[in-house]
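Sample A.
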Amino acid sequence: MKESDAVLVYLHSYWRSLQSEGLADILRSTYQTVPAAKPDFEYLLAGQAASGNMETLELGSQIHQWWRIDNTGCHAHRLLQLPQKDDSSMFWKHPIIRFFLSDERVLLGERLGEDLICRKLGTLLNTGSRELTLINPTVTWASTW
């Protein structure tokens, strides 16, 4: 399994959490907020950044590949438009998570909406027979502006 595939498996699981009751826990633990209404996410956009810096938590703007993550899985995607805001909430209809891989480390840049931004660092673990798993992505900073 490629490193990017392991990240996509994690992000698909994360997408399912965003669609479930787990969303409130994610928002509370990451952003110290819980919205009055559940967001109407249509899908998650994931992009593998060509560059990044694990120490400064910077992600490059050039993206190798975009994927659309939804209930059917992960699919290659062309980013054709900027994210649209759900007019009734603080969330984008298509949140974006960019990631950068460096050896066994993964830097994730999450943006659920205009003001809901965070960075997470995780580790890829080799679980045997060419399987990789992203473990313990930890929030390193978050902002709600």
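Sample B, a different protein:
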Amino acid sequence: MLATRGDSMPSQIPEYITSIQINLSDAAAQRPALAIESARVFAKWANVEHVLANAVSMIVGDTTALALIDKFKAKNAQYDAIKIALEGKICCTETRSLIPPLFKLINKAAGPRNKLAHSLWGTIEQLPAALLLTEPKFALKMSRCMLSSPTKTWVEDDNKTNFERGFEGNIDLANEMINILREGTEVWVHNDFNDPLRFLECSIVALTFFTTAAAAKPGSQEAIQALDGLRKILRENESLQ
């Protein structure tokens, strides 16, 4: 359950690919196995939000919890208000001291989820087992480059990609497009989902331990066991950050 380094991480488009025609039409249908892994990330993040809401509700009360969780979602996982509210309500110094590293873990888990949720999904023929995630601002830069390229006509039997045809005679613009795409795009394959899913699962377990520790009587066996479990998860995940 706990993380150990060894899984791959998203990479950039390989340097050997020099002609890129990215397909943004329906990447989920073209890469169904990776779409399923993405759905698992989204589902586990929903579980993180649920367990966090339960913890906040138990510690600060339902009304305050609902307001804080709404802010949490609206601000794309900005935790300051929630952290302050929890720290103000928890009397046990030891439990309170674990709030910052706990939210550091949650933030680590939120990163890949946000990348999947807010990037443009695409595919290219040269990487049939990969999902390409392009940041919107880089996609906008690419669109501007494409609009700056003069419209061309071509025949369909010239064995060139649309990318090569569209920028034929304008190598500088073609290279600029490729550089923008490389800079703003991550290449995800199946193994790249392992760490994000693990961090999400660890966040859920850590939040459960935290809730138990906060609800238990300080110094009780229940509180001690919950704090031990929480510290273990935070310590083992800290080594990956």
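Observation for Sample B: Confidence is low (pLDDT under 50) at residues 1-6.
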